[in-house]
Amino acid sequence: MKPSHISFYVLIAAVFGVFLFYPIWYAIYGAFVADGKFTTSFVTGVFTDPVQFESILNSLYLGIAVTISSTVLAMPLAWLSVRYRFAGKPLLSGLLLVPMILPPFVGAIGMRTIFARYYGSANLILAKLGLVDGDHLIDWFGSWGFVGVVVLETLHLYPIMFLNLSSALANVDPSMEEAAQNLGSSGFGLFRRITFPLLLPGFFAGGTIVFIWAFTDLGTPLMFGYRNVISVQIFDRLNEIDSNPQGYALVFVVLVTTLILFVLSKKLFPSNSLAMLSKGGKGAQEARPGPLLLVVIYSLFLLTIGAAIVPHLGVILTSFSERWFMTITPEVYTTDHFVNALSHPITLPSIKNSILFSSLSTLLDISIGLLIAVMLVRQKVKGADLIDGIVMLPLALPGIVLAFGYVGAFKGSSIDPRVNPTWLLIISYAVRRLPFMVRAVVAGLQQVSESFEEASMNLGAGPVETTFKITVPLIGANILAGSILAFSFAMLEVSDSLLLAFSETYYPITKAIYSLFNRLGDGPYIASALGIWSMVFLTASLIGASMVLGRKMGEMFRV
């Protein structure tokens, strides 16, 4: 075995062993060991305690409901986007990704303002039209419960299903559908028997991410006050981590659930499963829709985009309002909150912290991700599939699992997050976003011929010199795209930020938004303004990344 390969294995073992598997092992250990003795009482207690068991069921229901609703919303959009050619398709397809630019827990501020039962804009509009009265107002989200969380998470996560289904549809071999049509199959029967089975890898790739995300989302239930879910129960036990093992037991339940889904998706639908485009084949030709179908296409796209921007609209109006109560729109507008969002004693340090943490984590991702991608694609190291699976694992593991494990595993150490979370926030951001970098660089390496690198080495350049002088410039756009995604999503990371930042001194942006939202007075308004600043930043980032990666953006969200 080459010395470079040995060094690579050592690096992988060190990085992922210490900052991925060790925190996970520590959480498992805490769930089963007390006073040096093995016990299952903590885990079984989760299922025998009515409140904890209900929390697990509620989280499962959330994951299932959001996955189904996201699929129902994304499937027709993906089909129309891939199979038909119509004016404005790139713009409309791009606008479908708008919900990704704002964390749903920030969007909850807008949703609560617009759909509040007694003072929300929606009920006030209906009352003005005479459709409801003060005694029969609509409780849109069941007192901010299950329905509100499902709606908001669906509007945030359907783009992931759209990206994966679009990518899968574009790769379906049209000869299979043509053969079925020649045998008399058509319409929904053709889709059910031929097309949908071919889409299953893409569906499960996106569905797994959506389910895990919804199942473990912490920010949205917190903002809606829907606390009886497993993620919030874990969050509530953070301060009892030294004395109450129930938090570890809940983390173990989440870990087992998500790993089962991850393994099933890999076993049932590996990346090369089912027949997709044959070598040299072409995807289905885009058809021109008739006038009626064209109306349906534009209506569906615009209605979806309109619904998706409602939370953003609510946040925007809140951020500009000086006073907004019992009126359809704000009574008085101001831009003061945007100024305060950049100068407030909580927000200003949080912006600086997020920029610092995200920048350093992105540098780590570039360094490690480039090395991993080169070793997997160019060096073809042994066990490449296993290493690729380990690298992608953070995409499947909920942030709340790793963050809780970090707090327990590194307590009392030099990087104890309760003293100074800087290094653990940087590391957690890097580990969680490393898959984006690896996927982007791998895509670039697969598109670049090895002949350039071979020519360089034939002229006497070593592997390292060749990598930095030949390979990196050729895949520079992919590295940039991966860096943009890693940096921007780290800037707005929710779970790690909420769990690891204990002191205001170290608050990242998302923890600052959560803290301000829970303060009386102008807190929610400044939180909304800070959310808008974040939204503008992430919008530019996603546009830049999508311009480089195109349809390969869907690969960034596959486990």
Keywords for this entry:
MetI-like fold; 559 residues; two-stranded antiparallel ribbon; globular; two-stranded antiparallel sheet; single chain
Following the backbone from N to C, one meets helices and strands in this order, namely HEEHHHHHHHHHHHHHEEHHHHHHHHHHH
In whole angstroms, how far apart are the ends? 29 Å
What do the pLDDT scores average to?
Answer: 83
| Global morphology | globular
Integer-rounded radius of gyration: 24 Å
> Strands of the largest sheet, in order across it?
1-2
Unreliable spans: none
How is this structure best summarized?
The chain has 559 residues and is an all-alpha fold.
Q: What would your notes on this structure say?
A:
The chain is mostly helical and 559 residues long. The chain has a domain at 1-31 and 335-559: MetI-like fold (Orthogonal Bundle). The chain contains 25 helices and four strands. The protein has a two-stranded antiparallel sheet. Strands 3-4 form a two-stranded antiparallel sheet. A hairpin with an 8-residue loop joins strand 3 (321-323) and strand 4 (332-333). Helix 16 packs across helix 19. The longest helix has 34 residues, at 50-83. The chain starts with a helix and ends in a 10-residue tail after the last helix.
Topology at a glance:
Layout: H1 3-32, E1 33-34, E2 37-38, H2 41-48, H3 50-83, H4 89-95, H5 104-114, H6 121-128, H7 146-170, H8 174-182, H9 187-216, H10 219-224, H11 230-236, H12 246-268, H13 291-308, H14 310-320, E3 321-323, E4 332-333, H15 336-341, H16 347-377, H17 384-396, H18 399-409, H19 422-447, H20 451-458, H21 463-474, H22 476-491, H23 495-500, H24 509-517, H25 523-549
Antiparallel strand pairs: 1-2, 3-4
